[in-house]
Write a structure and sequence with these properties.
Elements lengths: L2 H14 L5 H8 L21 E2 L5 E2 L2 H11 L6 E5 L5 H7 L4 E6 L2 H13 L5 E5 L12 E6 L8 H5 L1 E12 L5 E8 L4 E8 L19
Parallel strand pairs: 3-4, 3-6, 4-5, 6-7
Antiparallel strand pairs: 1-2, 7-8, 8-9
Bound molecules: S-adenosyl-L-homocysteine.
The site of S-adenosyl-L-homocysteine has 23 residues, from strand 2, helix 4 and strand 4.
C-alpha cells in the first residue's frame, strides 16, 4: 500500500474510532508523518501504531495523537505547552490548530532534530526548548493547554501551577504494574478536576536533562 493510500485509510479509521473533530482530522492529514519516523519505518508511517525513534524513545500512535489533541479543545488563540517533543509529530499536529506551541524535550538530539523539521516544514509557531518537563516552562506561563506525552506517576505541581484557570491538561499517569491511563485535568479557580479517559502506553517521564555523548549527531 502506498503512503497516500495508507493515509486515506488512517483518516477513515480515526473517524471510525470516534475522532469527530474535522480540524483534528485535517491537521493529521496535512502533517507528513513519514518525515518524523526513522528511515527504516517510512513505509509504515501511516499505520496506526507507535514506532521507535532515536534515543530509545517512540513516536506516538496516530489515534492517540488525534485523541489527545481532540481532548484539548484547542482554538486559534491557544498557547500550548507540550512535554516530550520526541519526534516532533504531536507538536506539528498541534501547531495547525493553535496560536503557539512550546515543546520541551530532555534529549538535546531529539529537540534539535525536531527543530530542523519544523523549519523544513515552515511550522513557525513552534518553539523547541531543551528542558525538564517536571519543571514546566514558567517563563511563558500560564498556558491555555498542556499536553504531556511521557508518563509520570503523579501530575507535577509546576504544570498545574502553569495551567491557566479554565485551561485543560491531558496527561498519562503511571499507575504501577505497567498500567497507565490518560487523564484530562481542568483547572478551576480553587483547584483541579480530573477525569480518567482511556488506557495508554507511553514511555516514562524522567527527571532532569538526559545525559548524552558529546559526539551524538543532531
Ligand atoms: N510527542 C512525541 C512522543 C514522544 S515520546 C511525538 O509526537 O513523537 C516522549 C518523549 O518525552 C521522549 O522523547 C522523552 O525523552 C521525553 N521526556 C521524558 N521525560 C521528560 C521530561 N521530564 N522532560 C521533557 N521531556 C521528557
Amino acid at each position: 500500500m502506498s503512503n497516500e493510500t495508507a493515509k486515506v485509510k488512517l483518516i477513515m479509521d480515526l473517524r471510525a474510532r470516534g475522532i469527530r473533530s474535522t480540524s483534528v482530522l485535517e491537521a493529521i492529514e496535512t502533517t507528513p508523518r513519514e518525515k518524523f519516523v526513522a528511515e527504516p519505518f517510512i513505509d509504515q508511517a501511516y499505520a496506526d501504531q507507535s514506532l521507535p525513534i532515536s534515543c530509545g524513545q517512540t513516536i506516538s500512535q496516530p489515534y492517540i495523537v488525534a485523541f489527545m489533541t481532540e481532548q484539548l479543545n484547542l482554538n486559534d488563540r491557544s498557547l500550548v505547552l507540550e512535554v516530550g517533543t520526541g519526534s516532533g509529530y504531536q507538536a506539528a499536529v498541534l501547531s495547525k490548530m493553535c496560536r503557539r506551541v512550546f515543546t520541551l524535550e530532555r534529549y538535546r538530539t531529539l529537540s534539535m532534530k525536531a527543530r530542523h523539521l519544523f523549519e523544513e516544514l515552515s511550522l513557525r509557531n513552534i518553539t523547541t526548548i531543551i528542558g525538564d518537563g517536571f519543571k514546566g516552562w514558567p517563563q511563558q506561563a500560564p498556558f491555555d493547554h498542556i499536553i504531556v506525552t511521557a508518563a509520570p506517576r503523579d501530575i507535577p505541581q509546576p504544570l498545574i501551577d502553569q495551567l491557566a484557570v479554565g485551561g485543560v491538561m491531558v496527561i498519562p499517569l503511571n499507575q504501577g504494574l505497567g498500567n497507565q491511563a490518560l487523564y484530562r485535568v481542568t483547572k478551576t479557580p480553587q483547584s483541579i478536576e480530573t477525569k480518567k479517559l482511556i488506557d495508554v502506553r507511553f514511555v516514562p517521564m524522567l527527571e532532569g536533562l538526559a545525559r548524552e555523548q558529546q559526539n551524538t549527531s543532531n
